[in-house]
Write a structure and sequence with these properties.
Pfam families: Cupin_8. InterPro entries: Cupin_8, JmjC_dom, JMJD6_ArgDemeth/LysHydrox. This is JmjC domain-containing protein. With 481 residues, this protein is α+β, with helices and mostly antiparallel strands. The chain is 39% helix and 17% strand. The protein contains 14 helices and 13 strands. The strands form 2 sheets. It has a 9-stranded mixed sheet. A 4-stranded antiparallel sheet has the order 7-12-9-10, covered by helices on one side. α5 links the parallel β1 and β2. The longest helix has 31 residues. It is globular, with a radius of gyration of 24 Å. The protein starts with a helix and ends with a helix.
Length: 481
């Protein structure tokens, strides 16, 4: 208890977020206390070797816990390189057994050759055809990410120097900017400020019919997420130098990305090494794998695990015509090495749904603990020194908390709806799929029973939560298998 108290005081004094007491035990047992000790002793290790040694200390302390907490589908080791397979001849059963079930990445060739967009969206020189796209989708709205580069700045180690600003634009406006960007490329005087734009998450729908662009490859058609609402299918279009910062995909979904034109560089980090990607307090995710180096030696202690993360990261160079399968829970960064056009999906099925709920349940329990903490404070009060947020950051913390609750609630509802939709379909479910649904749904029912954080039983006319009823559907389905 004394160590916990010391950790609480140090955490309050050294972080802007103060102390969340419900997370202190986790921080004590998963190795972050060691990382905090490194910071207290020397907040700026003098060398990369020192940072590596500090990360090794924290990693050793977390290894057993991380291995025990890893989901069954997450492998204990990772590939040193990503294999390539001929997507036209590779059997689906082999894809499942070698890659999807063990949750490992693979590059598949040849899957885009018959797509309509392979001709209509790409020039004879194998470049994205912005002239065609600008004409065909002139007024179609799409999100565009703007990155302002200060004089002399560039993307740092495959990531923009600041978080891009997302704005609604039109494909026509983006195509016009692209033409100006191409004409000015290489002609800007040294030291002149620049701006990069990246059209991302352009969703397929009525204004962008998927059938006119591509057909979903056979490896990825067992897609429970897009079966429900088809809203996780996107086009990405960006010039060389545009990037996507370090992240893992929503709900620990699988994803696949097919390059119609261009070249991408990916860095993939296995789920067993996720803890290396966070700051010394285990709270802030690094923007990219070299964030400990971009600010000089003073930044080495901020992300003490990144030196080791770079050693286990898997680099992938994805060419035009290749499709990358990104497994569940693998954090990754992406950089366009050439002007690049791609089609991307996020997707769930019976092979990764346990992992989706595993991640979501952690977030739900963290919110439950916070809710209990706030109730205790309201009922009993607490000394100002023990408040989990400082006065000046209370409003920002409140907004962050509201956003976290909304996101977690949305993910909870989405996963429930995915399950309900699959149980409502006439197609038969395999025994292993029923096992997964029963496990996940049963855990969700238990979670709601211990406290309905999101009021799911009261939402909608008469309430839409039917967790217990759906469990009976699972049992009846099992009798028919």
């Amino acid at each position: 208890m004394h160590s916990i108290g010391v950790l609480k005081l140090l955490h309050s004094a050294l972080t802007a977020n103060g102390t969340r007491q419900e997370l202190l035990a986790d921080a004590y047992f998963d190795g972050r206390l060691d990382a905090l000790g490194v910071y207290v002793e020397d907040s700026a290790p003098a060398t990369a070797a020192a940072a590596t040694a500090a990360a090794a200390t924290a990693a050793a302390a977390t290894a057993a816990a991380a291995t025990a907490a890893a989901d069954d589908y997450i492998p204990s080791s990772s590939p040193s390189s990503v294999p390539r397979e001929d997507g036209l001849s590779f059997p689906y059963a082999s894809f499942v057994s070698r890659y999807m079930s063990p949750n490992l990445p693979v590059l598949l060739s040849g899957l885009t050759s018959s797509w309509p967009a392979a001709e209509t969206w790409v020039t004879p020189d194998a470049e994205p055809d912005l002239a065609h796209l600008g004409r065909a989708f002139r007024d179609t709205r799409a999100p565009v990410h703007f990155t302002a580069l200060p004089p002399g700045a560039a993307s740092v180690f495959g990531a923009p120097p600041a978080r891009p600003l997302a704005r609604e634009s039109t494909v026509g406006e983006f195509a016009d900017w692209w033409e100006e960007h191409l004409s000015a490329r290489g002609e800007a005087p040294p030291g002149a400020p620049r701006e990069l734009r990246y059209l991302k998450d352009w969703s397929f729908g009525p204004s962008l019919p998927a059938a006119e662009v591509y057909s979903c490859p056979r490896f990825f058609r067992e897609d429970w997420l897009n079966d429900l609402q088809a809203s996780y299918r996107f086009v990405y279009l960006g010039p060389a130098g545009t990037c996507t910062r370090l992240h893992a995909d929503v709900l620990r979904s699988f994803s696949w990305s097919s390059n119609l034109a261009g070249r991408k560089r990916w860095y993939l980090i296995p789920p067993t090494h996720t803890h290396l990607l966070y700051d010394r307090f285990g709270q802030a995710l690094a923007p990219h794998l070299h964030a400990d180096l971009e600010g000089g030696e003073g930044q080495l202690g901020t992300f003490p695990g990144l030196a080791l993360a770079r050693e286990v990261a898997v680099e992938v160079i994805q060419e035009a015509g290749e499709t990358l399968f990104v497994p569940s829970g693998w954090h990754h960064t992406v950089e366009n090495l050439k002007d690049t056009l791609s089609v991307n999906h996020n997707w769930l099925n019976g092979y990764n749904m346990r992992g989706s709920w595993g991640k979501l349940s952690e977030e739900v329990e963290a919110l439950r603990a916070l809710s209990l903490r706030e109730e205790k404070v309201e009922q009993e009060g607490e000394p100002a020194a023990d408040a989990w947020v400082k006065d000046e950051s209370e409003e920002a913390a409140r907004r962050q908390q509201e956003q976290t609750v909304a996101t977690t609630e949305g993910d909870f509802v989405l996963l429930y709806d995915v399950i309900a939709h699959q149980l409502g379909l006439e197609r038969g479910l395999r025994p292993d799929e029923l096992d997964t649904i029963e496990d996940v749904l049963g855990s969700m029912v238990e979670s709601v029973g211990r406290g309905d954080l999101f009021g799911v039983k009261e939402k909608g006319e008469g309430g839409w939560w039917r967790g217990e009823e759906l469990m009976e559907v699972v049992r009846r389905r099992r009798m028919l298998v």
